[in-house]
Write a structure and sequence with these properties.
GO terms for molecular function: methyltransferase activity. The protein is of the alpha/beta class. The chain contains nine helices and eleven strands. It has one domain: Rossmann fold (3-Layer(aba) Sandwich), CATH 3.40.50. It has helices at about 15-25, 30-40, 55-60, 75-90, 125-130, 165-175, 195-200, 220-230, 245-260, and strands at about 45-50, 65-70, 95, 110-115, 135-145, 180, 185, 205-210, 215-220, 265, 270-275.
Length: about 280
């Protein structure tokens, strides 16, 4: 598992799904172009997105495949994913409510399997072995690493103030305590690393790494930053229980005081992609 003191439970992102659309910065179209070029994708084959959340990556990549499947353990995330699919007219995507540990779940084989900031929540040795058997002979495992709730730190001039992320973290800690919360448990040392060892131990080779450079400056509203905070497992709405209204009010007060005309600005982070071959 991810940590000896922590076990997954279904409340991990409880209440967060509706905040993703508002609080998470979308993946750029260039990410799909880069992955498509690296893997010579031509509209054939199938995509499996594991821990798909509200379908942000699934829907971006789905046009590169004949069909796509997004799986997630949070039913509310899949409801949001279907809503997004309906809005963009995606007809080649289906959603399945299950944990990654339940794979292969009779889903068949796939040309590409993606994990976007989700692998660390899983029993990684178990999942990597099962997913390896689901890949076609020419298939690839693609890990997308990107912090989409928060931009790059820095002191270069921007058109509006940066969100006061340090003060936000301090406010969260004042309500939830200094140790990172996750579902019903704690992550005193954060989420685990060591992905490379696990992948190579399961017989994968690589990785091939590509970077999608952004650096784009975006404006964000107070409401967007509030949703960004609630989109995180460490500050998911359920964690505050009956103190949620008080925390929400304190957070809004902090952000309103720090913003200018209700606006912030941030520079988007680069997106790192690691491609592994079985």
């Amino acid at each position: 598992m991810t940590d000896a003191t922590w076990e997954w439970d279904e409340t991990l992102y409880a209440g967060s799904a509706s905040h993703y659309r508002v609080g998470r910065m979308p993946y750029p179209p260039g990410l799909a172009e880069a992955i498509g070029a690296a893997l010579d994708l031509d509209g054939t084959g199938r995509l499996l997105d594991v821990g798909c959340g509200p379908g942000s990556l699934t829907l971006l990549l789905a046009p590169l495949f004949e069909a796509a499947v997004g799986v997630d353990a949070d039913r509310d995330m899949l409801t949001e994913a279907q809503r997004r699919a309906d809005e963009v007219g995606a007809t080649n995507v289906e959603w399945r409510h299950l944990r990654a540990e339940a794979l292969p779940a009779d889903l068949g084989t796939f040309r590409v399997v993606t994990f976007a900031q989700s692998f660390h929540w899983m029993d990684r040795p178990l999942v990597v072995g099962r997913v390896r058997d689901m890949l076609t002979p020419d298939g690839a495992w693609v890990h997308v690493g990107a912090n989409t709730h928060q931009g790059v730190t820095g002191d270069d001039p921007l058109p509006y103030p940066r969100p006061p992320w340090q003060q936000i973290d301090e406010l969260v800690a004042s309500y939830l305590g200094p140790v990172r919360r996750a579902g019903q448990g704690l992550l005193p040392t954060g989420t685990p690393s060591g992905e490379g060892e696990i992948m190579r131990g399961a017989g994968f080779t690589g990785p091939t790494r590509i970077t999608v450079e952004q650096g784009i400056v975006v404006e964000r509203s107070v409401d967007e930053i509030i949703s960004a905070v609630f989109s995180l497992s460490s500050s998911a709405p359920h964690l505050f229980a009956d103190r949620l209204p008080a925390f929400s009010a304190d957070l809004r007060q902090l952000l309103t005081a720090a913003a200018r005309d209700g606006r912030f600005a941030e520079r988007r982070r680069d997106i790192d992609v690691a491609i592994w071959r079985p």
